[in-house]
Amino acid sequence: MAKTHDIIFQRLDEFKIELPSWGFADTGTRFGKFLQTAAAKTIDEKLADAGQVHKMTGACPTVAVHTLWDFPKGQPLAAVLKSAKKHGVKIGAINPNVFESQQYKWGSLANRSASIRQMAIDHILHSVAIAQAVGSNCISLWFADGTNYPGQADIIERKRAMTEALKAIHAALPAGMSMLVEYKPFEPAFYATDIADWGMAYVLARAAGPNAKVLVDTGHHYQATNIEQIVAWLLDENMLGGFHFNDRKYADDDLTLGSIDPYQIFRIFHEIENYRFRNDAVPALAYMVDQSHNLKPKIEAMIQTVDMAQQLYTKACLVDRKALAMSQASEDLVRSENILKDAFFTDTRPLVAEWRKAHGLPADPLVAHRESGYERRAATKRGKSHKTDHSFI
């Protein structure tokens, strides 16, 4: 048990989860949004909130940012770096934005217009330059490109345009920087999304170059998709770059991790640890959160997700893999399934709390956050700048 204890502590030391700057700001749905007085409005406030989560959990040293939302024209990068240092975090993945501007109505890298495709490439290369300036080694790409009706565009032409553009971007990456290609089956494109599944992302990343990998968003799948099988295949192909953590009941719901199906997240971690068991190592994976907390308090929701991720990851580390391999070899289905369930139903909260205490962290980060009064102070300071939104009344 002592050896297992030490291994799990080492795993938790290595298990870092990147927070999204946009997860601390007011967000909503296509129908509108409900404002929170403590929500962050500036990059400094976002970094402050992320720093609070890291202070409570000890597991979130970096913050993913959006180029347009967090680095508007004139935003001095030195000021952002100073703010991040002040709040005890660093800048993580840089997310270009090629889906909001009007010129991307018919797509970005897959647009039939060469000038608009170049505009999108230039923006992504600008994001690469920002990444270099702030010390980030990751560009995270998601595209809204696609079509809504049969016959709207030539599917193969769009595929080839996307391929060539990603090759050009990859060629401009500095040494040591990775490019993650995300996929999504639908929304906002409802007939043919240009990167609709892991296979398409795999093909495009493989064509782009060796530093391009696939990003798996746990909410970006159709119902009943076996996400852990996708993870296992991508790991075996050395094409898994990382995750966007969230949960869903229907589609891309952006709910807190494990709020709907914690067993699925456990099975994903199980496949990662199973890869380690086979190969005595795992590739460097970017564990990132991508959630839209429309109703839950922003920081509390982030702490919930990080806490749940640590618990579920620890459960996956408890799987008796030698026993599992033996039961699988003898086609003992019941025993094999129960080995997984035994680990899943183990209460890992005491073990994670012990790890936190060993690192001078609060045993219960959510309770500690509430007792700190941070949210109340933030609401008092930031609430005055909020304006009531009557647009849907």
Task: Report on this structure.
The strands form two sheets. An eight-stranded parallel β-sheet has the order 3-2-1-10-9-8-6-4. Helices cover 48% and strands 11% of the residues. The relative contact order is 0.13. The protein has helices at residues 2-14, 43-57, 67-70, 77-86, 114-134, 155-171, 198-208, 227-236, 262-279, 298-317, 321-329, 333-344, 349-358, 365-372, 374-382; strands at 17-20, 62-66, 90-95, 138-141, 146-147, 178-182, 192-193, 212-217, 240-245, 286-289. The protein is of the alpha/beta class and 393 residues long. The protein has 15 helices and ten strands. The chain is globular and about 60 Å long. Helix 8 links the parallel strand 8 and strand 9. Helix 2 (43-57) crosses helix 14 (365-372).
Describe the structure concisely:
The chain is an alpha/beta fold and 393 residues long. It contains 15 helices and ten strands. Strand 1, helix 2 and strand 2 form a beta-alpha-beta unit.
- The strand line-up of the biggest sheet is 3-2-1-10-9-8-6-4
Strand tally = 10
- Helix/strand order, N-terminal first: HEHEHHEHEEHEEHEHEHEHHHHHH
General shape: globular
Structural class: alpha/beta
- Percent of residues in helical segments? 40-55%
Radius of gyration, CA atoms, in whole angstroms:
21 Å
Largest sheet: 8 strands, parallel
What is the averaged pLDDT score? Answer: 95
Low-confidence stretches: 388-393
Cα end-to-end separation: 60 Å
Number of helices: 15
Share of residues in strands: 5-15%
SSE layout and pairings?
Elements: H1 2-14, E1 17-20, H2 43-57, E2 62-66, H3 67-70, H4 77-86, E3 90-95, H5 114-134, E4 138-141, E5 146-147, H6 155-171, E6 178-182, E7 192-193, H7 198-208, E8 212-217, H8 227-236, E9 240-245, H9 262-279, E10 286-289, H10 298-317, H11 321-329, H12 333-344, H13 349-358, H14 365-372, H15 374-382
Parallel strand pairs: 1-2, 1-10, 2-3, 4-6, 6-8, 8-9, 9-10
Antiparallel strand pairs: 5-7
